[in-house]
């Protein structure tokens, strides 16, 4: 083991295993995750990663082992495929969950065990604006069929991932009977026997290469009436339409996956922090004091400033992901029982946190890559591949700006309710104080109050202020004679800013609540330090907001920076141990820089030598192209 890494792991001030257990949701979950990793994948003689049979092997193994819990599926897949995506991601995270949540019992029993599918909602002309989707599904009572049709070039289904060229069960979103509503259809087409279908691949993408994203054009293709997913809405044999309790129930799968993406952003950021911090512990470069040995780059304050706030953010997002999934499970359970009262809040929370966490993690991956210098740009680091695979999460499952505006819609509605004298509960209850003006900034002392509860309060006041400013912008636009829609559009910068601040407050609050639950003194101490670092780093990035909210004075601003530097120094001794607690296996991380043993240089040389370009002393292209050319010169 590299001596630097070895030294970093001595004198631990907290129990790493206990922290790993907290991240997994308990020791039993850690044991189960490791069982899946060690027994069901790594030590499975059939484990054949990287071969053409990998995908079918994985599917059969998941069924053989009876793994159906989404989190356990993700554990198995991420061990099997490492940090990359695989062609069936969409089947597991969208197609199956849609069948689970939108099929009636007969359909569920008929389809779920048997098929692999994709989710074809987006069209060439519309991905965000679902009410603009053009694909039609017209019911023909005479034949008890729906006629599926792509009326325009912009209605061609575009992007469905994992498009299977031979058999095409897919979930469709189409406009059946009325433009305002659309429903889900399962369409099993066996190509090429089924006429009226034009299918293909949309062509090379920025990345996401393991997933074949396709296109699908339908020309009056008929499917049985029974293929409409009928848990919430039905078309009866006589053609009558039974509306769902809410037209937004059709959007349920997107809320589910957005909820998953929150925790996934934490996982991806934790992978990158593991790579960058372990590498920074073994990389020596330049000098701090003339004549002395080159220091570990982790001892540069700027390197700590790049990486340690991201380390704190990774923990924050992992805890936010746990909260999000628990909240999703609770509220979707209520929805299943017909109680839709918290559906708007679930939508607003999942939409906002999906955007907030993916934007932050997307930027953070690049900071981790650049903090590793040239070796960070090598594919051997795994960081370029992680970035390429993660960055579309800011676009898919709801483009982030649009998602932030959905959260803003909920915040504005909540603000108006408070103005009308209603008492709010849940995540927006802090807006009650705005109305009663108890949001007045606390007596701001000359010293920064570092109590975590106080910091959460300051973020709450900042969010409330920005919500109020956005609402006032809309009111001012209306007062200038603008219609409601234009008043909204002319305030969308403020609205996104308010949603971002609301999400930032929510994430810090979840972090603080999780820290409060930690009983082990050593783990509590180090997590409290990270939560402080997350809060203070945010105050440094958004100082203007806190000044504008009146919860920070100009005189206190220097102490924010001073406090930040102190916290970076406090985290330094535990940095490698904190990434060890993420428990990312070398085989899954697939990074020469992030190896657990820290033996980077030897591994990098071996990695380079294994490159196809080094298979022969002289590359065949010399003999094929250059040598004949030289002979002519
Ligand atoms: C096992 C796996 C584990 C881990 C995996 C982790 C991560 C996964 C990683 C990768 C996943 C793999 C591949 C991903 C591939 C991506 C697949 C896709 O992209 S599928 C397509 C996704 N498309 C979208 O998300 C479309 C976005 N657009 C919309 O959702 C809607 O058009 C809109 C923007 C919300 C607007 O909808 P609409 O116009 O109908 O609504 P209004 O804005 O007018 O608002 C009206 C009213 O409705 C409420 N509302 C809107 N949406 C919802 C909802 N979903 N739920 C509840 N309520 C909703 C809205 O709040 C308004 O309410 P009101 O204010 O009127 O009370
Ligand atoms: C890798 C990848 C995989 C995908 N897989 C699938 C899949 O399997 N199935 C599927 O159905 N789809 C899939 N998609 C499509 C994806 O869901 C859409 O791309 C996404 O919903 C964004 O919609 P859009 O492309 O129409 O972008 P647009 O909405 O056109 O966004 C373009 C710009 O317009 C802005 N904008 C749009 N509306 C508003 C508004 N109301 N207010 C302010 N600004 C606005 C956006 O902020 C953005 O800046 C995938 C996409 C990617 C990148």
Automatic annotation (TrEMBL):
SUPFAM superfamilies linked to this entry: Acyl-CoA dehydrogenase C-terminal domain-like (SSF47203), Acyl-CoA dehydrogenase NM domain-like (SSF56645)
Residues of the Acyl-coenzyme A oxidase N-terminal domain: 58-115
Residue ranges of every copy of the Acyl-CoA oxidase C-alpha1 domain listed in the record: 251-412
Cofactor(s) for this UniProt protein: FAD
UniProt binding sites for FAD: 122, 161
Catalytic residues (UniProt): 397 (proton acceptor)
Domain Acyl-CoA oxidase C-terminal residues, every copy: 451-629
Catalysed reaction equations from the record: dodecanoyl-CoA + O2 = (2E)-dodecenoyl-CoA + H2O2; (5Z,8Z,11Z,14Z,17Z)-eicosapentaenoyl-CoA + O2 = (2E,5Z,8Z,11Z,14Z,17Z)-eicosahexaenoyl-CoA + H2O2; decanoyl-CoA + O2 = (2E)-decenoyl-CoA + H2O2; octadecanoyl-CoA + O2 = (2E)-octadecenoyl-CoA + H2O2
Transmembrane portions of the chain: none
Subcellular location: Peroxisome
Domain of life: Eukaryota
Keyword Acyltransferase: no
Pathway(s): Lipid metabolism; peroxisomal fatty acid beta-oxidation
Keyword match Flavoprotein: yes
Biological process, per Gene Ontology: fatty acid beta-oxidation using acyl-CoA oxidase; lipid homeostasis; very long-chain fatty acid metabolic process
GO molecular function: acyl-CoA oxidase activity; FAD binding; fatty acid binding
GO CC annotations on file: peroxisome
Keyword set, alphabetical order: FAD, Fatty acid metabolism, Flavoprotein, Lipid metabolism, Oxidoreductase, Peroxisome
One Pfam family matching this protein: Acyl-CoA_ox_N
Gene3D superfamilies listed in its UniProt record: Acyl-CoA dehydrogenase/oxidase, N-terminal domain, Butyryl-CoA Dehydrogenase, subunit A, domain 2, Butyryl-CoA Dehydrogenase, subunit A, domain 3
Homology family: Belongs to the acyl-CoA oxidase family.
PANTHER family: ELECTRON TRANSPORT OXIDOREDUCTASE, PEROXISOMAL ACYL-COENZYME A OXIDASE 1
Record's protein name: Acyl-coenzyme A oxidase
Protein species of origin: Gadus morhua (Atlantic cod)
